[in-house]
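Still learning. Any example?
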Amino acid sequence: TMVEELVDEILYICRILSRNSFKPRLKPAIRVGIAFKGWSPREEDIVYCLLVPLEPPPGHAFHLELGT
């Protein structure tokens, strides 16, 4: 939870600094599990998997394009 709190604080600062821009906005991080556990060359390494959702800027929307 300490890593999640640190990432959330960093994302919060990024949201404040970019609130007047037309770039996608960062939402709070979501823990997605330990899918990569054991993939590190060193046994003692810990891999944290966090997903950072994006929100479109005001007046814009995201949409998927097929075939790319």
In short: The beta strands are 25-26, 30-33, 49-51, 54-55.
